[in-house]
Automatic annotation (TrEMBL):
One family name in Pfam for this protein: Aminotran_5
Co-factor binding comment: Binds 1 pyridoxal phosphate per subunit.
Name of the gene: serC
A molecular function GO annotation: O-phospho-L-serine:2-oxoglutarate aminotransferase activity
Catalytic reaction(s) noted: 4-(phosphooxy)-L-threonine + 2-oxoglutarate = (R)-3-hydroxy-2-oxo-4-phosphooxybutanoate + L-glutamate; O-phospho-L-serine + 2-oxoglutarate = 3-phosphooxypyruvate + L-glutamate
This protein's name: Phosphoserine aminotransferase
Localisation: Cytoplasm
Pathway(s) this gene product operates in, as recorded in its UniProt entry: Amino-acid biosynthesis; L-serine biosynthesis; L-serine from 3-phospho-D-glycerate: step 2/3; Cofactor biosynthesis; pyridoxine 5'-phosphate biosynthesis; pyridoxine 5'-phosphate from D-erythrose 4-phosphate: step 3/5
EC main group: transferase
Residue ranges annotated for the Aminotransferase class V domain, each copy included: 17-356
Amino acid sequence: MNRLLNNNKLKEFYMQMYNFNSGPSILPEYVLRKAAEAITDFKKTGLSILEIGHRTTAFIDTLQEARQLAKELMQLGPDYEVLYLQGGATTQFMQVPMNLLGASDTAAYCDNGIWGTKAIKEAEIWGNVNVVSSTKDKNYSYIEKVFAIPDAVNYLHITTNNTVEGTQWHTIPGTGQTPLVADMSSDIFSRPLDFSRFSLMYAGAQKNAGAAGTTLVIVNKNILGRINRNIPPIMDYRKHIEADSLLNTAPVFAVYVSYLTLKWIKEEGGLEEMWKRTKQRAELMYAALDSLDIFTPIAAKEDRSLMNVTFTIENKNWEDEFLELCKEHGMIGVKGYRTVGGLRVSLYNAMPVSSVVKFTELMSMFNDRKKKAN
Ligand SMILES: *Cc1c(COP(=O)(O)O)cnc(C)c1O
């Protein structure tokens, strides 16, 4: 009999999975359950979330609540606007300079990983870029934290967490009067920060803030309208703000999933609680990596990401064997990105601490097996 035909079996099948994917990635069970309900009946409208109009009260309420929740979790004041846009974080690589960087102006960028490098390439299309720090020399395995910001740059851009390389800014750099712009795609809502130090933050929802299909942009509106460029309305943050983030058809379902995710974060205890769990998960992982002979973390110790943990195995030939073992135990998404190699596990908000314990037990078992055999 097909196991997928049997509901209980189906549940068992899914419950055994440990999703370490980097994005789209694990979501809280609460979110999946509520999203599933909305597929058949959204807020008792009798309509599916997939067929409901984006200008219905039912949806507008959800969108506005989600925007409000994001601000509340980040403790941001009235200068900030939350937008749910489309095109992924990748579109922000273009949209940020389009709105903030005049053709003859200069922006400062930190080059700490492949995503930051992409952001730099796109900014160069719209104005001048001054790369104030780069860690390309060591394949982006660390973060250069000491650098000077030239006067008269329109903004400084950083990637708070390097998803691919497994490094993270643990202290947000001071920028004085220079507006700070950050790609927070893979660590947004994982820790409390003084978010008012950022002038613009963006994040694809599919890592720590929902499902694929929408991108959060959180912007201090005072930095907009300072440059002289004809911006197509759909690319103009001011137009989206004027329209309360409903300039055109919103990605209705993706916004709803993000709303549910933010609601879950709030109900679990907000960013303080997320931060507690973030630290627990990362401590477990790095303790295992530091103590087991055959595993070695890739990132420099002081810059280790608490979200995406990258590591290698002593003998490269053992990688496939370990990945196979992971698969047998329902642990997926463990393979590293091709530019970095090795292995990577992503430990986003929805990842239970107990799943990380299970993973480190598997590492330990594999380590013992290899030590005995050699
Ligand atoms: C995943 C990721 C991106 C790309 O996001 P898309 O939504 O696929 O465009 C950009 N920056 C960082 C830090 C990421 O982790």
